[in-house]
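TASK: fixed-backbone design
INPUT:
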């Protein structure tokens, strides 16, 4: 088995594997990662050159994120995933990432614990449906500095490239106490990145986004369990938890403030 660079021509196969796992992964995300941090994206190839596993990573300022670790079902438990993970971890460390994040299932956490990853939170996936018949639209704008600063206060690091691409492909709204992005997610809608200083500020922003989601359209939000205000907000709108993963980090302890994080920027792969 050879660990090799993840090439643009591998994306179609990755998306097929992700779909079979029930993941929410799209072409834009692969394009972004391969453009921003190609040295941290890898595939495992067998003796015939076939790609049988993938991993991606992204470096922010002083931190990084490992995501999209997937291996063909027939080769799980053979060390392919460990090899991919170690390649991404090494690429981030070589690039100077002091803190490295990832999300993990409870069954997958023991692997990461061997590499000194610590669980700091749980990310809950909230799912609901739109109820609006008004069809309002949010503006499409570049992410302003005020939103970048609030996001950095939540995660303990600047994540400018990630914010720029998610705001650019979605629609953006800012209030006095926060910001929110609505992104297309296949036939559904994803809310995030979403940051606010408190539940009241978040509630007003979420109200406005909900007015843009057509009735019956599926709505996703990934949010930290430690942000109890986020949970209360989503329950009030009839969303329910459809799954969860552990949020883990290794390296320098981050200045993580989950009370400011109401929605992640991507569905688990970039933070």
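OUTPUT:
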């Amino acid at each position: 088995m050879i660990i090799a660079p993840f090439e643009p021509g591998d994306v179609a196969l990755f998306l097929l594997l992700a779909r079979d796992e029930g993941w929410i992964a799209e072409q834009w995300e692969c394009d972004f990662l391969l453009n921003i941090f190609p040295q941290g994206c890898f595939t495992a190839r067998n003796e015939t050159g076939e790609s049988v596993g993938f991993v991606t990573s992204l470096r922010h300022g002083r931190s990084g994120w490992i995501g999209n670790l997937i291996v063909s079902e027939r080769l799980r438990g053979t060390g392919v995933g460990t090899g991919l993970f170690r390649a991404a971890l090494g690429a981030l460390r070589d690039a100077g990432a002091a803190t490295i994040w990832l999300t993990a299932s409870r069954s997958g956490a023991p692997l990461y614990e061997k590499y000194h990853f610590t669980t700091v939170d749980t990310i809950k996936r909230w799912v609901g449906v739109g109820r609006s018949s008004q069809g309002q639209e949010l503006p499409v704008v570049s992410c302003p500095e005020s939103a970048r600063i609030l996001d950095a206060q939540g995660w303990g690091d600047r994540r400018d490239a990630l914010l720029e691409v998610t705001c650019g492909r979605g629609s953006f709204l800012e209030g006095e106490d926060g910001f929110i992005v609505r992104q297309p997610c296949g036939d559904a809608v994803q809310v995030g990145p979403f940051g606010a200083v408190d539940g009241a500020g978040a509630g007003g922003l979420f109200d406005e986004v909900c007015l843009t989601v057509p009735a019956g359209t599926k709505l996703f939000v990934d949010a930290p369990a430690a942000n109890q205000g986020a949970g209360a907000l989503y329950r009030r709108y009839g969303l329910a938890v459809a799954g969860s993963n552990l949020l883990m980090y290794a390296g320098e302890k981050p200045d993580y403030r989950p009370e400011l994080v109401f929605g992640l920027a991507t569905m688990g792969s970039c933070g």
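COMMENT: The chain has two domains: 2-97, 124-243+255-263.
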